[in-house]
């Protein structure tokens, strides 16, 4: 029997075929999950094209900076799923390009607020709305982080601060939601060639460095993050919560 037979998953962050969220969607669907994607207005065409590749997948508009749109998205997902939700995937992050190009000391108040709001607070906002749909049967909430939350990665700047806030939020949510059998974890993926990552200068050089230094002597693939999310979403990970799981070919254990 498939690992996620009968499970219902709401996925935020699918943008194009290189998105980690898309890789996660494919992994979840391969094990029987029913999916709903959300989309920003400007990405609707691409999200609908991808959703069409997984039969039965629904799409719902949502701007994560809007409480009204979050309310609507979870209400509509609840209708599609018959009033319950098993899996929530948070694969949303953004900082204004100028905040990644300029020195960190020049971070603007507006840029700081935008990065933290979209990349970190949105996890809390989503979890709040997921609880009523999950509290009867429990569930799994998984987000995406990056090791720049723990180490200085030049040009990652305010996004690193946002990822640190995301990881801390993961632990607090795991503590509070555990009584409802809702698990909350985050995946720290190695550098991948995604739309978001291309906004950080020096990505190609760093990917080459990781391939040389990481214990597995290679970079990772989107599908490997997808399969880790599948594991965390399944009953195989039923005792795992509040964790940051590294999927980076082992790079995080190295001193270089």
Keywords:
single chain; 256 residues; alpha/beta; Rossmann fold; 7-stranded parallel β-sheet; 8 helices; 7 strands; globular; Enoyl-[acyl-carrier-protein] reductase [NADH]
What does this 3D model show about the protein?
- The protein has a 7-stranded parallel sheet with strand order 3-2-1-4-5-6-7, with helices on both faces.
- It has helices at residues 20-30, 44-51, 67-80, 97-101, 109-134, 157-177, 203-213, 222-233, and strands at 8-12, 34-39, 58-61, 87-90, 139-145, 182-189, 244-247.
- 45% of the residues are buried.
- It is of the alpha/beta class and 256 residues long.
- Helix 1 packs across helix 8 (222-233), helix 3 runs parallel beside helix 5 and helix 5 runs parallel beside helix 6.
- The protein has a single domain, classed as 3-Layer(aba) Sandwich (Rossmann fold), CATH 3.40.50.720.
- The model has no long low-confidence stretch (mean pLDDT 95).
- The chain contains 8 helices and 7 strands.
- It catalyses: a 2,3-saturated acyl-[ACP] + NAD(+) = a (2E)-enoyl-[ACP] + NADH + H(+).
């Amino acid at each position: 029997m498939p690992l996620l037979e009968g499970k219902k998953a709401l996925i935020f962050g699918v943008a194009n075929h290189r998105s980690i969220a898309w890789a996660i969607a494919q992994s979840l669907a391969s094990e029987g999950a029913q999916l709903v994607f959300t989309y920003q207005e400007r990405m609707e065409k691409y999200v609908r094209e991808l959703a069409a590749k997984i039969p039965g997948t629904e799409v719902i508009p949502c701007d994560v900076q809007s409480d009204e749109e979050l309310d609507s998205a979870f209400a509509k997902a609840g209708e599609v799923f018959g009033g319950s939700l098993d899996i929530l995937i948070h694969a949303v992050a953004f900082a204004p390009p100028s905040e990644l190009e300029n020195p960190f000391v020049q971070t603007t108040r507006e840029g700081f607020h935008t990065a933290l709001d979209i990349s970190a607070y949105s996890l809390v906002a989503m979890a709040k709305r997921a609880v009523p749909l999950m509290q009867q049967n429990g569930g799994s909430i998984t987000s995406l982080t990056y090791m720049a939350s723990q180490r200085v990665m030049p040009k990652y700047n305010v996004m690193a601060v946002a990822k640190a806030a995301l990881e801390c939020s993961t632990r607090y949510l795991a503590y509070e939601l555990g009584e409802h059998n809702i698990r909350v974890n985050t995946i720290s993926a190695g550098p991948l060639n995604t739309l978001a990552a291309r906004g950080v200068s020096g990505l190609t050089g760093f990917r080459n460095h990781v391939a040389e230094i990481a214990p597995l002597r290679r970079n990772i693939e989107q599908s490997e993050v997808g399969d880790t999310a599948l594991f965390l979403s399944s009953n195989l990970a039923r005792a795992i919560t509040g964790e940051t799981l590294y999927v980076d070919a082992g790079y995080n254990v190295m001193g270089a």
